[in-house]
Amino acid sequence: MPLNYQEIFERNEKWIAEKLSIDPDFFTKMSEDHKPDCLFIGCSDSRADPEEITGLNMGQIFVHRNISNIVNPIDLNVKSVIEYAIENLNVKHIIVCGHYGCGGIAAAMKQEGIGKNSPWLQIIKDIYRIHKTELEAIEDEIKRYDRLVELNVLEQCENVLEMDSVKTQYATKKIPAVYGWVYDMRTGKIIDLKVDYKAVFKSFLVENPSTFKKVISKAKNIFKK
Prior knowledge:
Elements (H helix, E strand, L loop, with lengths): L4 H18 L3 H7 L5 E6 L6 H5 L6 E6 L9 H12 L5 E7 L3 H8 L8 H12 L1 H5 L4 H21 L2 H10 L3 E8 L4 E4 L4 H11 L1 H16 L1
């Protein structure tokens, strides 16, 4: 049923009462500090709420959401969120989470509606083009879209790992760990795509030693201040 606007405020009052009945100091404690261990980068889809699907509580997870969980290196929004999370909140884990049945993935592939001329969804189209041979070998359309969801998550994890701020933090503190997840709305399960973030950082050190040393040196100077 459609949600009545006024009903939102009534539900808010009920929620407040429920929280206070369990812990009279709930909101006092919640307003005092913010020390989440995780940054969750997810899709804006209302069916993939990060706290709901992980079973975590308020204050345990820092969240950024957009259409199809994109980590665009030139997007100041997601860039600022990541930098704040690792430099100010010292989060230990960054999770990029997509979900099967993603409307953004479907829109990009169907070439209609917002997907027809959207610069944002062009990112997904480019991922499809890069993996075209693998994807077009999958005859079942749903399974093909599912695989594109997975590939998109892996590409966005790579974008996170390539950020200078992330490399700097890892060079000095060995955090954050970076994970790629897919939430399956058909079963409720979270699937870990097993991103080997340690190998990525190690390969960067081997392939770009001089650059990596500059990152470490810069980081050490930052943390001395």
